[in-house]
Structures are given as structure tokens and as C-alpha cells.
Task: structure prediction
Amino acid sequence: MSFWRLPLDSEEHSIPHGKINIIKSRCKGCGFCIEFCPNGCLRESKAFNEKGYHPPEVIDDTGCVDCGLCTLICPEFAIFTELQEAKKITEEDIQKVTTRFSRKDTRYRKP
Amino acid sequence: MKRHFRDIVPFDQDSADRAIEEGHGLHPLDEYLKPGRIPHIWCPGCGLGVVLTTYIEAIRRKGIPVDKCVVVSGIGCTGRVAGYLDMDTYHTTHGRAIPFATGLALVRPDLHVTVFSGDGDLFAIGGNHLIHGARRNINLNVICVNNFNYGMTGGQAGPTTPVDARTSTTPMGNAEPGFNLPHLAHASGAVYVARWTTFHPRQLVHSITETFDKKGFTFIEVIAPCPTGYGRPNKLGSGLEEMRYYKEMSEVRNGADPSKAEIRLKGKILCGTFINVERPDFLETYNNLVIAKAQGRDKGKAA
Ligand code: SF4
Result:
């Protein structure tokens, strides 16, 4: 599917891009951030930390939109995001968002 | 027979201090925490850390200086919050968080006094204080973290344990129905009653920021997973699985009737801001009624 134009107000909006910082030694491996990241940016790493848990690792650094949910939901003060830049909206982004929430994408569907 | 013991290494204060220095300040919210207290004592998967983070985030978002915030907590896993926050906090005896906070709120009406405690501390041991605090409408913000059992002492049944739930003291299932906390708070006279789970951190931050502006007794119940004390005997799984359960079974309905907000084992959880009304708080009524009358009488005598 392609669009014949960008939304009219796309100039006024931007897509924030965040950097995910993980303090690995504090993690107790509860998995809240991995499960509830709305963009699915995190996964459990294979490595152990000092406490013997598997801290999360970043799958795709471009996916983070600095929503800050992981900062809020982490019980251990072990993860936070920082705003890197605010990107202009391009056609590609809109394509990505529409396919993400379309029926074709099975990632966000309930089993 | 001669026994050999390990050599005692003297405690190295300098390196301990250095370790605290290095570890503190890695996270932006660390400025609200006492140095060297993280990692906290709560179990992996416990929801208490989430509630602490949301409280800090609410202060930060509201821009309230730390010397205007006071946290009073009772005993229990939740009571540890007072030890972690780097502000004026007080860790009271069991159940007596509200009496202490009442005194504080009356003497220093300029402070935002928050009572941070668990369901056992606020509703079993300190149950009377809570209902009378709400009746008098003292200017307090109460955040009650409900994990349905006494987690710190080994998972005993408490006043909020639902019927049929298994705990270490009710291995065959609990025969007593649990309290419906929002209903109780509302009936006692709280001006703001809300319930959220740890799966709703954003809504929780919003609710806490709202209570800072509110005069009078506000009550927020936060349902938190306790995988150690409550999750394991009831086969709810890890903290993450309990969070998934909240995600599926919680229903946000703002303005709902709190009498319908009862919680059953593995049942639906009604969330939202149930009550948000205005009522003159204790200090206002006292000043307008008693102090004004007393001053009037003094004046009459002098004349
Ligand atoms: S016992 Fe329960 S409430 Fe206490 S720290 Fe562990 S999980 Fe949290």
C-alpha cells in the first residue's frame, strides 16, 4: 500500500528517537520491560550479570521512541531512555506504523 | 581440638563508600534515592519498585521540591519505601503511619504528606486510624500497595486476601472475604479514591500528581504482584505472569461505583479514579469554626 501524500500536518509533528540505557548490574530479571515495551525493542540476553540474572538487551536501537514506559515499569531503577533526536516524519515511517497495526502483522495480536 | 576460623578482614569503609559513589547516580531518578540503598530488598518480580518509581516520577513531573515532600510509612515490604527515598521520611511502628502523618499534616500544612504503606499495615493493624483519618478529612495522600497478603513475614492471610485464596496460613483456601478498599475509603469519607495496578504506571503517575493538588484525604490503591507470598501458593506464576493477568483482567472505568470494585481470586479488577469530590478538610473546618469562635469570645471579653 502506498500513499499519494503525507498527512497535511506532518511538518508539525516529529518522531522522537530515544537511546536505551541499561544498568545491567541492577537488573533482577523480572522481564517487565521486555514484555511491555510497546515497540518490542528489548529481549532477554544470553549473558549473566553479577547477580546471576539475564538482563535485557536492545534488539533494534532505531525502534525506541523515548516513551519512557521501561523507566516507569522497571522496579529496580535499572533502565532509562534519553531523547536523542526528533526525526521528521517520512513516508517510510507512516508505512511502518500502518503495517504494524494492520491485520497482516501478527506480533501485536492476542493469541 | 583446635578449630581454624577464617581471618577476619576489617571492614573497609573507603572502598564501601567508593562502591556507593560509583553505583549512585547512574539512573536519572537516583537523585531522589539515598545513596547505596539500591538494589533494594524487594523480590524479583515484585511490584513495589514500580510504585516507588511512579511516586518519584509524579514529584518530578509536578516539580515539587524534595523539602516540601514527606513520606510516612508503616511496617512491611512497602514500609521500606521510607528508607530508600532521600527526603524527609519516617518509618513508624506497625500500623501507626496515619497517626504520625496526621500530626505532621496539622502542624505543617505547607507540606505534601504522603502515607506509603501496605494493605496489612493500613487496613488490619492500622485500620481504625485510616477510617478516622478519612472521616476527619486530614490533608493526607495515602498510597496503599495491595498485594493480598503479609509478604514480609512469610505470606500469611491478611484483611484483603480474597475468598478461597491460598496463603501460608490458609493452605486449604481462605474462608474470609477480603476488604474492598476503595469502597471502605469512600464510605469513610475520602475525597479522592482511585485504584490502579502496577500494569498502569502512567495512569498511576497521573493519579498521584492529581492528589498533590487536592485538599483532604486522598486514597490510591495500587494492586501489586507478590510472586513470593501470594503468587506461588495460588499458582499465579512469576511477577511477569501476574502483570499479564492484570493486563488481561483489569478494566478501566473512571467514575465507577466503588462498591462494585470487589476483587475475587483470579477475577476481574476494576480500575480507575472512582471518586473525586470536594469537601472542606479538617484544618479549614477547625479554623473557621473553633478558632474563629474562640477569637470572637476573646474579643467579647476584652471589650
Ligand atoms: S514478599 Fe512479596 S511484597 Fe515483599 S518484596 Fe517479596 S514479592 Fe514484594
